[in-house]
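I hope you will forgive my troubling you with a question about protein structure. The matter concerns a single protein, recorded as an amino acid sequence and a row of backbone structure tokens. Please examine both parts with care and let me know of anything in them that strikes you as inconsistent. Here, with my thanks, is the record as I have it:
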Amino acid sequence: QVQLVESGGGLVHTGGSLRLSCLASGLTFSTNDMGWFRQAPGTEREFVAAITWRNEYRAYADSVKGRATISRANAKFTVDLQIDSLKPEDTAVYYCAATKSLADVNIYSEDNYSYWGQGTQVTVSS
């Protein structure tokens, strides 16, 4: 049974930083693309960042490019997302997601992720 458990969310002031972490179990991990998505109230879930298994290519949404860093530690089964210079519009529930093993898919699309965490709330106060 695959489990993805996010941690690190919370309340932070504008301009602050957060580091979200996702601990995976029940999957190979080293051969899974990993992504972070977020959903603000009343909006669709959107892509934030992803890191591939094959060559650790990193992709970012324009909204966080230059402020976010995604990283993975295969030996620890973790994928982290650091976001700096947080803005009120970063407020959302952040979800960790994983593709199937050895997948070669569009990492920007949530439809290509098979496994999801429960999410962690990030609130940025102005």
Summary: The mean pLDDT is 97. The first strand starts at residue 3 and ends at 7.
